[in-house]
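CORE FACILITY INTAKE
Project code: CF-77B
Contact: R.S. (postdoc)
Sample description: multi-component assembly, two entities in total
Requested service: structural model of the whole complex
Turnaround: standard
Below are the sequence entries exactly as provided by the requester. Do not edit them.
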Amino acid sequence: MSEYLVLIYENEAAWEGADAETMGEMMKGHQVFGERNAKALRGGNALESTTTATSLRRDPSGGLLVSDGPFAETKEALGGYYVIEAADLDEAIAMAGQIPALFGGVEIRPIRVFD
Amino acid sequence: MLAATIRVTGDIDVGEECVQEAYSRALTTWSRTGIPRNVGAWLTTVARRRAIDVLRRQSAQERLLPMIVESAEDATSSEAERTNIPDDRLRLIFTCCHPSLAIETQVALTLRLLCGLTTSEVARAFLVTESTMAARITRAKKKIKTSHIPYRVPTAEDLPTRIDAVLSVVHLVFTTGHTAPSGSGLMRRDLVERALELARMLRALLPSDAGVTGLLALIVLTDARQRTRTGDDGALLLLSQQDRNQWDRGAIVEGTELVREALRHRPAGRFALMAAIAAVHAEAPSWEATDWPEIVALYDLLLVAWPSPVVALNRAVAVGIADGPEAGLRALDELATEPHLSTYNYLASARADFLRRLGRSDEARLAYEEALLLSENEVERAFLASRLTELDD
C-alpha cells in the first residue's frame, strides 16, 4: 500500500460567494466522501482563505523573512506538509521557521474551524 | 482607550463598537450630569465595562473567543486600568505592525487604531478611495482574527526585530508626510504630527530602546527645519538656502540630546545614525561651515548598518560637497546601474547639480529633464524647472 496527499484547489471568490444551498451540498458531498472512504482516510481539513496566509523564507544571511500572503512562486512546487498546533501565529512562525525548506520556503495557513 | 478596550474584548471590531457606544452614552449621560473631570478615564471605563458585558454574553453562548489575553475580572479594577493603559497601546502597536501583514497594511492599521484617523483620512494618506481602504482594513482585521496574530508584547528574543518593524512603520508615516509623494504641498503636516506622536509614545513606553530614541531624535531634528523648507511662495528651498535663524532651537536641543543617548548604544542603529547626520546639519552655523567630512563618515557607518541604495546616493551627494563635484559625480556613477535607483528622481537631480557646478551644461540639462520626468511632487517639479531655466540664461 502507498499513501497519497490529495490537494483541493478551488476558486476562493466563488467559495466565499456561494449560497447556503450550494455550501450545504458541498458539505454533504464531503461527508459522503468521508463515509465511503473511511478506511483509507488519514486526515483532512479545510483551510482559511489565502488572505489569512503568512509566508516564510530565509534571506541570504539566514534571517527569517516573514511576509503577508500565500507562497506565490511558480518555480517552487508543493513538496510536503506538517499540521501543527500553536497558541498563536507567533508560535506557529517560530515553529515553521525551523523547517529546513532549503530550496524555497513555507506557507502558514490557519485550518478552518466550522461553528 | 481603544487599546484598553481591545485587551478586554480580544477582538478589534468588538472593541471599536464598545468605544463607539461609550461615546454615545457620554452624550446622553453628560447632558444630564455635566462633563466629568477626567473625560478619558470615564470613557475608557464605560467602554471596558461594555466590553466585559459583551464577553459575558458571548461566553454564555459558549462562543469561542479568539484572542483573550486576560480574564475580564482582572480588568475591572480601576487600579489595573490606570497602570495597564500604556501596555495596552504597546500591545496594540505590535499587533498592527506584525510582520505577517503587508507593510502598507501595518501603516494603515496603525493610523486607524493608534492615531485614531478615520478610514477616509487613512485612505487620503494613501491616495486610494475610501472603499478600497475600508476593504484593506477589513481584510487585515480578518487576518488578525483568523490567523491569531497575538495581542501582546513580543518575547525578549523576538523584541529587537519586532521593534524594528514598528519603527519602520513610524518612519514611513513620517517620510510620507515629510515629502508627500505627490500633490500640491511639499509636506503633509497631519502625517508628520502623527509620526511624532507615535515616536513620543514609543519613547515613553520603551525608554531604554536605542532604536526608539534614535527615531524620535531623527523626527524631532528633521522637523525642526520644517518652517524653512519652502519659501513664502511655496517654492522648495535647499538646505544651503534656508534661513537657519528660523530653525526650531528648542527641538534641536531636544533632538541632539536624544542622539547622544541613542549613540551610546553600540553598534549604532540606522535611525541613530540618520539622526546624527541631521544633528550635524542642525548645529552647523551655515551650509559652508558644515562638517562635511563628518557627514560622509556618518554615511559610511550608516551604509554598514543599513545597506540601501538610497543611503548610498545620499552618501555620494555628501562626498560631492566634501571633496568637490567631480568626486561626487564619480560616487554617483558607481550607482548608475543600481536598479532601485533607476526611477528615483533624486539620483538624476543630484547628477544634474554636480554637472551644473562643473559647467557641463548640456549634460546637466539632460539630467534635470530626467529628474523632472520622474518627480510627481509639484513643489519639487517647480524647483527642477527653475534650475533648467537658469541653465538657459
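Facility notes:
- The interface with chain A takes residues 64, 67, 98-102, 105, 139, 142-143, 146-150, 154, 158 of chain B (CB under 8 Å).
- Residues 54 and 71 of chain B are 13 Å apart (CA to CA).
Invoice: internal transfer
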